[in-house]
Amino acid sequence: MKSGSFATRALAAASLAALLAACATTPEPVAVAEPDMRSSEQFFAAAPDADWQEIAPEDLLVMEWPSEEGAEPNRVVIRLADIGFGTAWTTNVRAIARQGYWADAGIYRVIPPFVAQWGIIPPSEPGTEEPDEPDFLLEPAPGSFIAPLAASASPDQCERTPSGPAGICDAFAPEVRLVDGWVMGSDGASMWPIFCRSTVGVARGMDNQGSGSALYAVLQTERRNMDRNIGFVGKVIEGMDLLEDLPAATGPGGVYSDPAQVPMLTRYTLVSDMPEAERPRYRMLRTGTASHDAWLARLVQPNPFYSVRYAAADVCENVVPVVPIEAE
Predict the structure, then answer these.
(1) Radius of gyration over alpha carbons of the chain, in Å?
(2) 21, 47, 104, 117: which could join 109 in a potential S-S bond, CB 3.0 to 4.6 Å?
């Protein structure tokens, strides 16, 4: 009995020692990061200046028309895109602004929640020919809607997992890439712009690509069937609410039937051509920085309001924030 009791006690001691050793080497549970509950404004204010990039005045276009109150004009600001393809369109848009071609232009077509379109107002009389386009406009190369994937493109922002997508993902493109501050759809070899709300596209006919002599902004929601079908020149970064507040046109094709309804443009100019004291300034959160990585994490972070949570955000979210630089 004594020897058996000794053996029992020895076995128990050995088991306890093994348990203590196992506990000593068991890793601590991984801490779950608290959701970033700051407002966007608070987040931007905390991001260091080095993580921001000011948008060049040459890449900003100001469009204005009179307000009903007759005070400050309505102003829309467009960030122009030069991302390795479609440069004929942005070159044409800059030339149109500098040559004064749109001196008699207006926002003549408004179809909520589809598009607001501007340019030289088409003739309203049946059978009247539209004016010829100026000879300084370039002809976009065939197939300019798509380009080879740029060397500067980021890795794919979406991870496809058996349980669902994670990251910044898209239902219309296999991959999502960031290229020089723009969000692109991609198949791994080529890339194309995505037509979300505020995207500025090139108006065209059935049998051409358009020159950029008429443009439109996508209103209220995404129009992804335009991807790889419509020319792309940039994005509205200020004044989308003004375009969306315009009354719907009731004429054929969504064109205002009464010329008096057309908001006529009183200014259409590149910011680089404005007096310095009048220039609006903007900056974007530089991709690849710690602040932008944190911003992307915010877009996909679990929201405690929801019991079913997703680890992915839609590509039409505010993936690359642009904010005004306040005058000092």
Answers:
(1) 28
(2) 117
